Amino acid sequence: MVVSRLRVACPAVLLGCAAGLAQEPSNDSVPSTAAAFEQRSEYEYVGTKRCRMCHTAWYKSWLRSSKSRAFEALKPGVGVMVKRKAGLDVSVDYTTDPRCLRCHTVGFGKPGGYSVPDLADGRALRRAAVREGVGCESCHGPGSGFVVVMQEIILTQRAYRREEVLAAGRRIVTREVCLSCHNSRAICMIPQEGQGDSHQVYEFKVDLSDTRGFHEHFPLKYLERKADSVPSAHRNGDAAGAAKERLE
Is the pTM of this model over 0.90? Predict the structure, then answer.
């Protein structure tokens, strides 16, 4: 178990993220995370179901996770106890609140990302539905580039190196990816007693052996293991981390 001082109140994301927090973030590290993860302009978000085409097992596992239900936590009457502890009105519908949509949807406000749909527009509703929750692209980056690469790899059944999909926009999941949402700017975080608004302290726990918070890891069939020189973000310097590096 890796522990950092960050307490997550969002009911749909209580079980952690895919990356370990190896050290406590400094006071100035959290504000900088947003800039660190601005998407490259040439890539757009495509929606979580596009990832299912090549990664069915991962997708099915994600559906069972709390991350897939993150959007539900924004609805009135959901997560009552947690919202009350965070000082939020449990009767309010937060599904249109930009402060919440930034992290409870995929790519909000960015090219191809989630936008609040017109309830009378069926197409807009369907488009929004595949971008609800903390989806694949929330952590791995906008997929318009590497989805195309992976489809070609699957069709031709050829080997590939991790650098190939990274060059097409795939993001390695790091501690900073988690901290881009799990930080004191989120209105659903619960401040510890005795801490002022500008110096809030939180507790954030990540157990890398417990994948219920994101998804299970499975072997990548066509990945060239020996040629793969890019370290996995899931590695934690121990046997469990090494095993996850082999599976990703």
Answer: no
